[in-house]
Design the sequence.
């Protein structure tokens, strides 16, 4: 693997640094304003210090009353790079229902991930509707360290907490003619303002083949960094597919449907020439608008050579 050290996004020469007096005055202002006001912190999102970014994440966890999750780490899954700091993963996310930018955390206040149910239908012997708490209680919750590769060529390495998707599939018993699984998120225009955009196929949908869904890597995450998922990460439950580009890892899942045909999906419907159904990480196939040969890590700016299937070929290459 090739590791190329580049300067992080926040690097500035000393000549361009903020003067100490201006910095101290700003710190006094933030202290007086109170960290409880995430909206106020959002006004300064473009120029926060590391300390302030960490404080934002800590305050958000407190405001959302995210419960701690205790689970054993599955040692079968290891990383070839350091874990991404929690604040970096929390303040740089895609979730197009709320924002077309990465500052999703500033726009999720109205979203209510509790109570929550997941309905499983279609070509299954035992269709069911689960309250999220009941589903979690049925599952063997574990922690997995996974690499995450966005199609936009940024990446992170995070500790997801959840259960293998195949355990849920086993509960509903797919019929012999089921070949694909479709996942659908919520449709709540009063809570997610961008869902009023009529030129986009809301609600967000994604899909897998049955064989992909049953693969050992396919994971349903309910937590991250030792607690429940924050809203911008897809609370209360999301899909995690580390060998595919991130847009396949659909957030805030409400429905799962088994069928005998490939389902239409959000990005493959919108821009099929740029976002294919499979979306397997492949450094040899560039996106029409940028190279996929390398990836930039959140937080540090370290750049790594992209690996086939994001480094998980031993698990999934036989599927293709």
Sequence:
């Amino acid at each position: 693997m090739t590791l190329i050290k580049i300067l992080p996004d926040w690097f500035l020469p000393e000549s361009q640094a903020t003067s100490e007096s201006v910095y101290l005055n700003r710190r006094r202002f933030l202290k007086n304003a109170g960290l409880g006001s995430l909206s106020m912190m959002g006004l300064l999102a473009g120029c926060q210090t590391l300390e302030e970014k960490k404080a934002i994440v800590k305050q958000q966890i407190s405001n959302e009353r995210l419960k701690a999750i205790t689970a054993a780490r599955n040692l079968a899954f290891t990383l070839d790079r350091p874990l991404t700091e929690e604040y970096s993963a929390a303040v740089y996310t895609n979730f197009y229902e709320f924002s077309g930018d990465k500052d999703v955390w500033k726009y999720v206040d109205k979203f209510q991930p509790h109570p929550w149910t997941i309905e499983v239908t279609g070509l299954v012997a035992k269709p069911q509707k689960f309250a999220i708490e009941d589903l979690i209680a049925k599952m063997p919750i574990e922690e997995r360290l996974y690499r995450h590769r966005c199609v936009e060529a940024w990446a992170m390495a995070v500790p997801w907490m959840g259960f293998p998707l195949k355990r849920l599939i086993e509960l509903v018993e797919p019929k012999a003619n089921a070949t694909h699984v479709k996942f659908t998120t919520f449709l709540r225009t009063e809570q997610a303002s961008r869902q009023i955009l009529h030129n986009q196929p809301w609600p967000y949908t994604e899909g897998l083949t049955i064989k992909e869904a049953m693969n050992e890597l396919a994971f349903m995450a309910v937590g991250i960094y030792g607690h429940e998922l924050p809203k911008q990460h897809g609370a209360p439950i999301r899909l995690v597919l580390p060998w595919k580009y991130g847009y396949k890892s659909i957030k805030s899942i409400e429905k799962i449907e088994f069928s005998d045909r490939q389902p239409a999906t959000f990005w493959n419907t919108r821009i099929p020439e740029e976002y294919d159904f499979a979306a397997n990480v492949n450094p040899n196939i560039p996106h029409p608008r940028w190279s996929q040969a390398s990836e930039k890590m959140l937080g540090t700016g370290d750049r790594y050579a992209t690996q086939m299937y994001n480094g998980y070929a031993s698990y999934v290459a036989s599927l293709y």
